[in-house]
Specification:
Structural class of chain A: alpha/beta
CATH architecture of chain B: Sandwich
Number of domains of chain B: 1
Number of helices of chain A: 34
CATH class of the largest domain in chain A: Mainly Alpha
Number of strands of chain A: 14
CATH class of chain B: Mainly Beta
Largest interface: A-B, 35 and 32 residues
Helix content of chain B: 25-40%
Helix content of chain A: 55-70%
Radius of gyration of chain B: 19 Å
Number of helices of chain B: 4
CATH architecture of the largest domain in chain A: Up-down Bundle
Strand order of the largest sheet of chain A: 6-11-12-3-13-14
Oligomer: heterodimer
Chain lengths: ~850, ~180
């Protein structure tokens, strides 16, 4: 017998809207009521003052009385305003707090719903319900009690005040309200019906859009744009029709409100004016009466709006809860016991699984799997092997029969029992947005709640086991680290640089042009040659340099501005001449200082210019930018006049000494990476980081920092060099640090920044790290290349043999000999089982399968 | 298009002109319109290899033609795990290799290494295709030249191998087949 996921109390979807309002944050709500009551006095008091100002101060021409009443009036109005402000803030606070709790509890419930629920449910419906639709309810929640209480009290206080002034007039002016009590609810019911249909149509529309976006590859592939457009357009039209009718009713309600509101003053002026003319009513009383009437309508209007809001929120709430109105099949935590530690002895007795449409996917399956046995489930597509794996993992529930683990019926095990003891790897695993490390520890974190995390050595070990090491190192090498991120590893990274610079220098010199403060660098830009460093605040990026006063001054002082502008002019002219027919093709701009998007801008510039030395600041800037981006050995569009090299080199030293105030002697003297902490003009404290061996360049990738120079060509910086470096680093145990950085690589939404193989390996590592006694693999290595697949298979045999129960759904039969037993399924039934040799000898279903595969 | 009077500074542009002149000396590019050669000069990449360095290896995916600007390149092939020298190319004789890479994607069927310090100019298949898309009228003649230069090289390499074949390997007629 299954147990409900909610042990005590009402299931969340069965709670009423007011359940949340009346049971949450009661003390805050009482405090709010208190403020409301106090505020009532300050709302009525100004009306009394109005009357007295006219009837006493003005009538008696008493200036002092006028000052007093006016002072009291403004004081009361200010306090009423402040209290109103406090009421509003408190209302929103309470509403959002209740909404937060409602959303959290509902999401927890939603996540625990069975997989079958998600097969039927469109993601768009769930997303829309959990976000926008709940938001709309939140606005209502905050004022659910405060608004009606305030409105009713205010209404009666003002009515009382009016009766106090003149009972007849009061009766006449509120005579219209009962009529409204019939008209407004009638219109509101109509509005509710339309609104309910609007919510349904919007959800259906969201589902169509969601499906189109998810299947955009298929749409592009089939050119089915108009087909998809048609699907959506029927909903758009329905929505259009509904919205039209909805607003007709909505504004009808508004018209009725306004009309009834205008009837009051009409009666007041007619009867009150008549009475005032006949001396039966003072002028002051009439003014106060008019103010009270205006004010009495506000709470009335608020009550009507509240009623509308309540109806709307109620409909939305019921519709949201109706979607998720089913019990999670298993409880999350065990009752009155600890989470079980299972051995992995699995028994299936007459298990049948039928989908809601009535199709039987599995029939009468009986199977005993001993603890630590490794089982391969094989069979043709559709034979039910994956379904069987999912049933054992408690992801589906059997229709008939039972499954037990270590003698415990699986139906009676809670989710945490399964989570702790079973690790599952799907054929197409889901990777969450976040870092590699977060994804790796996802399974462990879920069941351990933060305790018992595997240590770094174990994590790195598993990464190596599944063959993810090279990928993680690559991610690490591409990382740009902030000083804080870099600090713990800085010395090790500089040591890696030193290895390249000294031990492996001869090999790397072929592929890398190392930074050397005394030499002109042909594979670096003129900007890098001049500035020879970076500041973390990006003060010296190319685009800002032409406007940097000190830099421009330096160019002028050293007579470099004109040659650079001439160079920029030559680049622009050559590029425009050569590429005018290719300006829309990115390929032609790969090795050009000009970017494709800048072509028109430079083309226009050249039309304006008469020569390479314009006076206009913008033109000078544009030409300088091209020159500063120029890399002599990479950009063949022009060449660097040889006389400039020496001048640029001089300018570099001048710039270091006079603009950024850096001690270049350190760069020149030391090449072993020794930090220069003593000299305040050297290192991070100067704000500028020169390309010196002792400095980590925070604006560059880790790879750039290790290579410490520009790559001459990708062809020469080949696998051989990478391997050499890797071995040298490993000898000194330096690669762990790079991997540590690589673990922080952001994988993107659904792991989009990873390849299919990387995602699969990550999922395998995630499951291995969990170290559960039962491992279920649903074609877990199918998308890996042969080498990676063999590596994982070897690992299962080497590390897990006799230590874990493994149930592997396998498509490639050449992997099956390694398993203790092979279970063959056909059309939802077990047709054969035994060791590889036994089954091959028997020449039955398995033998046929192997023949079909070959 | 830019006005013709907008000419770049002469001191800055001779690299492109030099490469264009260099390309014009090659059979494959000779006779091609100046605009086409100019674009190839612009898209060509200079590669430097020190003596002994591997330039490309048999079995790797081919992607570019190499033109020798200076130095010598050893072309060789492996057969039965033994290395066979096929040709020594230098800037003043047959001064290019890998020309078929411009036409099709395949794996290199020979290897090349720098016999001396070498400076090469390479043009990728992608660059070749991009330029030919714009100048389709030049395509046929260039393909013809690439193929005939390949035949020329094949003849040259065959002659070299025949010159070095062991006397007992000579056969004027096909061997007798039994049955």
């Amino acid at each position: 017998m299954k147990k409900s996921a909610v042990d005590t109390g009402t299931r969340i979807t069965e709670r009423s809207l007011f359940y949340w309002i009346l049971r949450r944050h009661r003390s805050m709500q009482l405090f709010l009521l208190l403020i409301i009551l106090v505020s009532l006095f300050f709302k009525v008091f100004p009306l009394e003052m109005q009357k007295r100002i006219i009837n006493e101060a003005i009538y008696l021409k008493d200036i002092e009385l006028l000052y007093l009443y006016c002072g009291l009036y403004i004081g009361a109005v200010t306090i009423a305003g402040l209290l109103k402000y406090a009421i509003n803030v408190l209302q929103v606070y309470i509403g959002q707090k209740i909404l937060l709790e409602m959303r959290e509890e509902l999401y927890q419930h939603v996540l625990q719903l069975p997989l079958q629920f998600y097969r039927k449910m469109q993601p768009g419906t769930v997303i829309s319900a959990m976000t926008a639709e709940l938001n709309a309810i939140g606005f209502f929640l905050g004022g659910a009690i405060a608004i009606p209480v305030t409105s009713v009290l205010t209404f009666f206080v003002f009515i009382g005040f009016m009766f106090n002034l003149n009972p007849v007039l009061a009766l006449l002016s509120i005579g219209v309200y009962p009529v409204e009590l019939f008209v407004i609810p009638y219109l509101q019911k109509k509005y509710n019906r339309l609104n309910s249909r609007r919510v349904k149509t919007t959800r259906a529309m969201a589902n169509v859009v969601n499906e189109s976006i998810s299947g955009i590859h298929e749409i592009h592939g089939n050119t089915s744009y108009s087909l998809e457009e048609k699907k959506l357009s029927s909903f758009i039209r329905q929505l259009y029709d509904l919205m039209k009718r909805l607003f007709v009713v909505k504004y009808g309600i508004k018209f009725a409100n306004n009309f009834f509101q205008s009837l009051g003053p009409f009666v007041l002026f007619l009867v009150g004016g008549y009475m005032a003319i006949n001396g039966q009513f003072t002028l002051g009383a009439l003014v106060a009466f008019l103010s009270a009437y205006e004010k009495v309508y506000d709470p009335w209007k608020e009550l009507i709006e509240y009623y509308q809001g309540y109806q709307d929120a109620q409909i939305r709430y019921r519709q949201i809860m109706a979607i998720f109105d089913l019990d999670p099949p298993h409880i999350l935590l065990p009752l009155n016991r600890d989470v079980l530690a299972l051995q992995g002895d699995i028994s299936l007795k007459n298990v049948t699984f039928t989908v809601p449409s009535g199709v039987r996917l599995l029939e009468d399956i009986s199977l005993d799997i001993k603890a630590n046995e490794q089982i391969a489930l094989v069979g043709y597509s559709g034979s039910g092997k994956s379904t069987l794996a999912l049933l054992i993992a408690q992801l589906y529930d059997v229709s008939q029969g039972n499954i037990s683990i270590d003698g415990h019926l699986i139906d009676e095990l809670c989710k945490m029992d399964m989570g702790r003891n079973v690790a599952m790897i799907a054929q197409q695993p889901f990777i969450f947005s976040g870092t590699i490390a977060e994804n790796l520890l996802y399974g462990v974190q879920a069941v351990s709640g933060g305790d018992g995390f595997p240590d770094r050595r174990r994590i790195l070990g598993v990464i190596g086991d599944v063959g993810l090491q090279d990928d993680i190192i690559r991610f690490g090498l591409q990382a740009v680290l902030s000083p804080e991120e870099c600090r713990p590893f800085r010395d090790k990274f500089l040591r890696m640089r030193e290895i390249i610079q000294t031990t492996l220098r001869a090999e790397f010199e072929q592929a890398i042009e190392f930074y050397d403060v005394t030499k002109y660098l042909y594979y670096s830009s003129i900007r890098d040659n001049l500035v020879f460093g970076d500041s973390i605040n990006r003060e010296f990026v190319v685009e800002r340099l032409p406007e940097h006063p000190r830099f421009v001054e330096l160019l002028r002082e050293l007579n470099l501005e004109k040659p650079l502008m001439t160079l920029g002019f030559a680049i622009a002219t050559q590029t425009i001449n050569l590429l005018s027919d290719f300006k829309g093709d990115e390929f032609f701009f790969r090795d050009n200082p000009m970017e494709m998007g800048e072509f028109e801008r430079y083309s226009d510039l050249l039309k304006r210019l008469k020569g390479p030395l314009p006076k206009e600041a913008e033109a000078r800037k544009l030409l300088l930018i091209l020159a500063l981006r120029f890399i002599p050995k990479k950009h063949s569009i022009v060449n660097l006049p040889s006389a400039m090299e020496e001048r640029i080199l001089n300018a570099r030293h001048y710039f270091q000494a006079n603009v950024v105030n850096v001690a270049m002697e350190h760069c020149m003297k030391q090449s072993d990476g020794t930090p220069c902490n003593k000299d305040p003009r050297c290192g991070e404290q100067s704000g500028f980081i020169p390309f010196c061996p002792s400095q980590y360049l925070y604006t560059h990738t880790l790879l750039d920092n290790i290579l410490f120079g520009a790559v001459k060509s990708e062809q020469t910086f080949d696998d051989h060099l990478r391997k050499l470096a890797s071995e040298a680093f490993e000898d000194e145990e330096l690669l762990d640090e790079v991997m540590h950085i690589g673990l922080d690589f952001e994988v993107g939404s659904k792991g989009d920044r990873l390849s299919g193989g990387q995602k699969q390996k990550l999922a395998i590592a995630r499951a291995f790290l969990k170290d559960a006694p039962i491992l279920i693999m649903d074609e877990a290595t199918a998308s890996l290349d042969d080498t990676s697949q063999a590596r994982i298979q070897g690992l299962l045999e080497r590390e897990f043999k006799g230590k874990k129960t493994i149930i592997a759904v396998i498509h490639r039969l050449d992997l099956t000999p390694a398993y203790d037993r092979i279970v063959v399924l056909k059309a939802g039934r077990i047709v054969e089982q035994g060791t590889y040799d036994e089954l091959m000898k028997r020449k039955g279903a398995f033998y046929e399968l192997t023949r079909a595969e070959s | 298009m830019n006005s013709p009077e907008q000419n770049p500074e002469k001191g800055c542009v001779n690299q492109l002109t030099d490469i264009k002149g260099f390309l014009n000396r090659f059979y494959i590019f000779s006779g091609a319109p100046s605009g086409v050669v100019g674009l190839f000069a612009y898209l060509a990449r200079q590669e430097e290899y020190a003596k002994g360095m591997l330039i490309m290896e048999e079995g790797e995916r081919c992607d570019r033609i190499f033109l020798i600007m200076s130095g010598q390149v050893d072309i060789y092939q492996y057969h039965d795990e033994r290395r066979f020298h096929l040709q020594l190319l230098s800037c003043d004789s047959i001064n290019y290799f890998g020309e078929l890479a411009l036409l099709a994607e395949f794996n290199w069927f020979f290897s090349a290494r720098a016999w001396t310090d070498v400076i090469l100019l390479s043009i990728s298949r992608e660059a070749f295709s991009k330029v030919m898309e714009k100048y389709p009228e030049s395509y046929q003649s260039m393909v013809q030249k690439i193929i005939s230069s390949r035949i020329h090289r094949f003849v040259d390499q065959s002659s070299y191998l025949l010159d070095h074949i062991a006397p007992e390997a000579w056969q004027e007629d096909p061997p007798e087949t039994s049955g």
